[in-house]
Structure formats: structure tokens, C-alpha cells
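Researcher: Please generate the 3D structure of the following complex. Treat every line as part of one assembly.
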Amino acid sequence: MFSPSTYRSRREHLKQEVGSGLVLLMGNKQVGMNFPHNWYTFRQDSTFLYYTGLNQPGMTLLIDLDEGTETLYGTDPTIDDIVWTGPVPSLDELAASAGIGQAREASALDTTLKNTPLERVHLLPTYRDEHRISLLKWFGLNPGEISKHHSDSLIRTIVEQRLVKTDEEAKQMDEAAAISADMHLEAMRVVRPGMYEYELMSRVHATALEQNGDIAYPIILTVNGQILHNHYYGNRIGDEDVVLVDAGAQTSMGYAGDLTRTFPAGTAFTPRQRDLYNIVLHSFESAVFRTKPGVLFRDLHYLACEKLVEGLKELKLMQGDPAEAVRAGAHTLFFQAGLGHMMGLDVHDMENLGEDVVGYPGDLQRDTRFGFKSLRLARKLEPGHVVTVEPGLYFIPTLIGLWKEEKKLKEFICYDELEKWTDAGGYRVEDDFIVTGQGYRLLGKPVPKTVEEIETVRREHL
Amino acid sequence: MFSPSTYRSRREHLKQEVGSGLVLLMGNKQVGMNFPHNWYTFRQDSTFLYYTGLNQPGMTLLIDLDEGTETLYGTDPTIDDIVWTGPVPSLDELAASAGIGQAREASALDTTLKNTPLERVHLLPTYRDEHRISLLKWFGLNPGEISKHHSDSLIRTIVEQRLVKTDEEAKQMDEAAAISADMHLEAMRVVRPGMYEYELMSRVHATALEQNGDIAYPIILTVNGQILHNHYYGNRIGDEDVVLVDAGAQTSMGYAGDLTRTFPAGTAFTPRQRDLYNIVLHSFESAVFRTKPGVLFRDLHYLACEKLVEGLKELKLMQGDPAEAVRAGAHTLFFQAGLGHMMGLDVHDMENLGEDVVGYPGDLQRDTRFGFKSLRLARKLEPGHVVTVEPGLYFIPTLIGLWKEEKKLKEFICYDELEKWTDAGGYRVEDDFIVTGQGYRLLGKPVPKTVEEIETVRREHL
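Model: Done. Output below.
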């Protein structure tokens, strides 16, 4: 973890901004997979981690803004615990490492909160049912009623603070991206036609673990890149397949990386694969090169979409004016997703606090049309923001069938030609960038990205 | 999954045994790690899996014993789902694959249950907060009150049914144990002094994934084998360390393996390590050779403990009559755990339904003394039971210090000699067995276990 002063100064900022009342930050608990003590790998709540650095389960931080006190609630190890788990730090030691003034047994929190009017408490949105049950116990608050009690001031303060990464955080993001880069290098080197997807996936996952990291999100590794949320790994990889890998590591401190590469299982892309890949790559580079403070990420999204349309026009899959096509949403037949998102302790940073608070502040309005609505981030970029850039082309037979039936946007889509391309699959390229004073910097280290670079890796390792 | 008739006949048995009322079997949902859609790897509830074979999240099976109907509740994929996740089976198709007569949207379940008196419903113990929240929604049942409404008849029926593995289940258990064996072979081959524990752990984990399995429980891999629940992997492995690995795979159908090996990081055990290892191995073999139908597993535990005492006497760490020492609990200074447990779809099979229902049926009473209380399984063995056998020796400095201070059981413990052994670490050997008509059968395949076998592997691979 960082030094106690880092966490103390983060909390000082929070206190000044929120002003009065009680700030309740609930750490995560262990979750049983199939019985109470068979736990998933523990993942701390990122906001709790940001303000305390403490990566142990079952703790709560209560900040009384009016009294000016901070109290860490948790459970001290018993002698039984020490027999079974070895020596572990005491609650006082944990509090001290986070610069927190006092620590108390969790049972004392029950008493305190049961005597506190809910109106005094700043609550965050819940995403774990364990927290919903705690709120029921403390305040008699029904799960369905929690959202009425979210604290907008607390949410906004946290989002604005966590969005801008300090130098020590940027180093963590570099580490996460570098491990993520190794995961992709490993996949690109060891893939062989005839392998099952799960075999290749095991190497990608192990690469994160062997550097004392873990996966930041479920790995996507598939010969069907057009299936966007694909966590099935049962296909056999064919000679002429491309493999799409979307995988990222989290560091032991919890910071995330998020990269995507699409590469051939053999030594070379087929001509069609190369054409599609290069369209995506050109779109990616166009957006990256325009990344700098003051730019609306939404505009980068539009730019990337236009570049996709330009490329698809050359393949005779689209026609008409690219900007008009994008305004009409014609590109969403091939690119249904957003260009990217914020990153930090969460791979979609602070998504649990509200996508729009993070991505659409102030007057920015989310476009609710198909495709557009999937853009998580529209916000004006500032130095210290960390974003992904990840355009793609996805040929989804069901979607193509639906559009074709109603001849949707036929002024832009060449349905006759498209018939030959419905099995063209999916392509995506994704890197992580931090916005600097003048522009941007790639996090981690470069992973082969051009057709030539990728084919060189494949030839050298097959 | 197995054939629909397998699940249908399992449910028929359940219905006959339980008789009347409504049986509510809640499948598991996805759990967000750090925001709602960043999910842990999905793990289905094992009871739901046993009676349906369905491995998809968010489903519930309701069996009306009085009407004789079975209804699967879930959510049909929308066109949006199909765009993002590819083609998935419909709810009707899922029900058919499990031999379930009808399927309905989950919202219909809310209506049904809100109009059902709780007394009619057979409830199982909950271990996920998601289920506690469902029970609150359906019946207004407070989380703290759920245990009063557990259905003893349903619990007992399920336990007795799931305890006895059919031939098709035994094949799954063999597969799980075989993948687990490969995990241990990999660790035993690739360990090198100077490695970090997490580097070796990554290879063990990957071995499960690359065979389309996953880990059945968090891997224990440590140079501090005396720390029984150790999920820290940050130590560097030294030249003269032994590494204790307790790891098992689950198959894609959810059946678990659970093996432990302890082996040197170099090419050979030191003389002291060999002595301790051989004591554990002899204890292991003594218990295994006596495994057969009709034997109380508790008696195997006592036998294994006596063998440990006999070995420790030879090292002058204990004295007196071994049987008396075990009755007095003197062995628990070195072996604080139980000899083994039931296995199946859960690595501790059905632990969520109640350890005592599984391990201490009828008149068997759990001994609540330190050490003894950790024996999960006392039950008389029957053909089809699957058990682990896993004796160990654990030198826990804190515990030794406490006992020494009060000279506890000094008639059996040689505290003066013990002073030289407090840093002796931890040793365990564990395999999985199915009880047969006459005796037992090792599940999976043998993993090197004698000192000679292990040292041969180390020499060949270092």
C-alpha cells in the first residue's frame, strides 16, 4: 500500500468537499462460492481501498464530518485465527497503516449506526448483497429503497477525486498495463491451430498470477470475436481463425489493466482478415493521436466511428458520407460498443458509483440509441485521466439479419455485398493511455499491433 | 451435463422422500467483484446443479409436491442479449435438457411465492446474501430468522441422496482427481529454489484451466505448511524449504478434487524433513488401508492420530501410550485438523447444508475439544461415499508457546526436545478415495508419494 499520509490526505480532501454528516465506506466481505467458507478470491471495494489501502475483508470506515473523527471497524484475530491463518496484523495496526485515528470492534458499529438517523449518513450505491443486508440491519432500509438514499455529494466528490491519477497511481497503472502486455504477448506467441480456447486462456491467466497479479476482469478469449461478452472457451482454434483476446491484470494493490489484441492462429492474416484488422487499427490510431486535455472523449468516439465507415466503404460494405452515416448510427451494425472508458482501481472505473456521473458530467447527455448508448465515456479529458481506446468491427449474423429484413439505413449499408461477409467475425485493438499535460502516454509497454509486427511474432514462435 | 433422465430420477426420489409442500431450490446468481457487471467466475449452487444439471445463473426450481409439478424459473434471452453474448438456449430448452416439465419467467415466481404461506415451503440454509434478499422479498423473512425455517426433511433427504455417488458421478470424480493430480505433478516438477510462491501457484492454477476445469477451492501453496488456511503467496522459496501444495480441480460439471503433497524445493528432503514426512505418510497409509464399508471414519481418524503419535515418539517429541495420548488430545499440538471429509460437487460436500448432518448422523456426537472439533466426518462409510484422507503434522510456534507455558499434557509432550523443532513447518499428504463394496479405490491417478518417488521427480526435473 501507499504511505499512511497518502490515504490521510485523500480523506482530508473528501471531508472538506462533503462537509457534514457521516460518511459510511463499507469494505467488501468474503463471498462463498458454493458453501460459506469456500471463498472466491477476495476483492476489496475500490472506494474503500482508495481511502484506506486496506485489503482485508470485513471492515468499515466511518467518518464523522461533524466531530472530525475517523473510525475503522473490524475484527481482531483470535488465538484460533492465529492457529489457522498464522500471525496477522491487529485492527490497531491496520488503522495505523492507513493513518486512521481509531479502531473498534465491528459490533460497536452496529450499536452506533442503529442509533443514527439515516438522514445523517452519506450512502454509496451498493453492488454486493452483503452491503444491502448490512443496511437492512443498521437502518431497517429495504434493498429496494437504498437508491433513494444515495449521497450525490459523496458520489460526485469521490468520482472527481478518483478520476485524476497521481504519479504514484500512474506507476501502478503502468505496472497493471505491463503485466497485461505480457499476458497478450504470451497468447500471441503460444497460440497454435488445434488448441482449445481454454488451453490458451490458461496461459493468459497464469501470466497475471505469476507476476503476483490477478485478472482484473473475466478473460475474453475467442475465435468468435463478434460475440462481445464471450466467456465461453470451449472452441477448437482453426488454421484460419483469428483469436480475439481481451484481458487485463490487476496489481496486488488493485489497479487494473485492459488490453485487446486480435491475431491469426497461423502465421498470417488472410487478405480479408488483414483488411478488416487494418480498418480497426487505423480507427484506433486516429483516436489515439487526438487524445489530449480538453477533448471530449465522445468526439474521439465519433472520429473513430467515421474512420471505421471510411474503411468499410473501401470494402464496399458501406456507402455515403461517413459523418452522416455515423450521425444516423449506420456504423452500429458493425461497431455496437463504445470507444473506451475510464480506468483505475476498477477496469470500468467507478462504474458502481454511476456510469453517467463518471462519463457524462454536467450538461453532457447520453445518446440512448442502439450502439451510442454503449459509450460509457463522453467527458472532457483532463491530465491524469486514464482511458482505454478500443474500436472494433463485429459481424453479428443475428443483427445483420434483423437490419437486412427491414432494410435499415440502406442508404449507408450495402446489404448485397454484406451477404458475403456475415461470417467475418470480430476484431478489436485496445490499449490504455494516461492523459498528460500536452497529450497522452501509453501505459505499460507496447504490444505488437501492426499486421507486420503481429505476423513476425507468429512466424518466430510457430 | 448428464441425460435428462438422470435429473428426473433424482428429483423423483426427492419427491417421494419429502412428501408434501413446496421444494424451493435456488440457483446462484452472478456476484460482482468490484462493480455490478464485473463478475466472479460463475459457480452454480451444488444442490441446484445436482437436481437440474443447469449451470446458468439466475434460475430457480420450484417443485410442488402436492400438485406434482416442477417449474423452472429464469429469464429468456432478449435480442440485446443475443447481440452481446451470442446465441444462448431458451428457458424452455434449458428446462427440457433437465427433464423439467415447464418453464416460466422469473417475475412469475415473485407472484407465486408472495401468495404462498412460508409454512408450506421447504427451505435450505443460505450461504449467499443474494438468497437471503430473495427470501426477504418473497416472504418478508428477515435474514436472522431464516434458520428457523430450514426444512430438516429436505436437508436430510438431499444429504443422504448426494452422499452416495453413482457410477456416472464417480467418473466425474475421477476426472476431477486426475486433473488435480496433474496440478500436483506440475508443481513437483517445476518448483525451483528462488521462485516466489505465486509463480509456482500460477502453474498449478493454469493446469486446472488448461483442461477446461477450474480450481475447486483457493489454492494453498506455501513454504509455511503449518499455517493451515494459508492463501498468501508472497514468500520466496528457499533451497532447503519444503513446499506444501493443497489444490484441487473442479470439472466443467462442478465435481471436485482435493489433493495435497509436500515436497522439497531442492532434490531431496533433509533428514528431519524426511522423518516428519514419513510419519505423515505412514499415518496416511494406515488409515487408507482400513477404509471400507461399515467403518466409522472417526475411527480412521483416531488410528491416523495414533500413528502420528507413534512416529513422534520415535523422534522423542512425544511419550507415553499412543492411544491414551490421542484420547487426551495430546496429538492436537501437532495435528489440529480432521483426517478428512466427504467430497462431491463440493470439496467439503454439502457443508452448506450442515456439517453435522453430513458428518455426524444419528447418535454420533461431535467432540467439541480443540482439534477433535475440526473433524468434519465421523460417519460410517458406505459404498459410493467419496472421502479425502489427509493427516498432517503442523508445528505452530504460537500454539507450542501457549501449551508450553501451561505445561499442557506434559505426560505426553516432550517440551524440552520440542524446543529444537518449533520451526519444523508443516507436512500433509492427501488423496481422494471412493468406498467400494469391499474396500476403496483411489480416484484419478497416483501422484508420487513416497520419499523416493518424490525425490526421483525432483532429480529428473531440477
